[in-house]
Amino acid sequence: MTVNDAVAKRISALLREKGISQYRLEQESGIQHGSMQCIMNGRNKTVTLSTVIMLAKGFGMSLTEFLDDVIFSSEELEIEQ
After folding, report:
1. Residue 35 is part of which domain span?
2. Rounded to whole angstroms, how far apart are CA atoms 38 and 1?
3. Which CATH number is 11's domain given?
4. Is residue 81 part of a domain?
5. Residue 73 lies in a domain
6. Model pLDDT, residue 73
């Protein structure tokens, strides 16, 4: 699983958990719809730290809280260089 895949899965889980729509997350985070679609559909190969910070802000949480999930500690997480 790539980092982008992990971020997309984390977004999906948090959307369900918090009961908000992807559109609302886009509005709260400042991430444009096209960029969000690229992340969620796997067309984006790398997600920047800035984007992850914006996502965390959109969810009303810290970066640490966003990344505090077993999906990011997976041994199978591929780090692209």
Report:
1. 3-67
2. 16
3. 1.10.260.40
4. no
5. no
6. 85
Q: Is 78 helix (H, G, I), strand (E, B) or coil?
A: strand
Report residue 78 as tokens: 């591929």
Tell me the three-class secondary structure of 8-76, residue by residue: HHHHHHHHHHHCCCHHHHHHHHCCCHHHHHHHHCCCCCCCCHHHHHHHHHHCCCCHHHHHCCHHHHCCC
Whose tokens are 């690229």? That residue is 38
Whether 78 is covered by a domain: the verdict is no
Model confidence pLDDT, tens digit, residues 13-68: 999 999 999 999 999 999 999 999 999 998 887 899 999 999 999 999 999 999 99
- Residue 7 reports pLDDT greater than 80: yes
Q: Is residue 40 part of a domain?
A: yes
pLDDT band at 81 (very low <50, low <70, confident <90, very high): low
Contacts of 41 (CB under 8 A, 6+ apart): none
Q: Indicate the number of domains in the chain.
A: 1
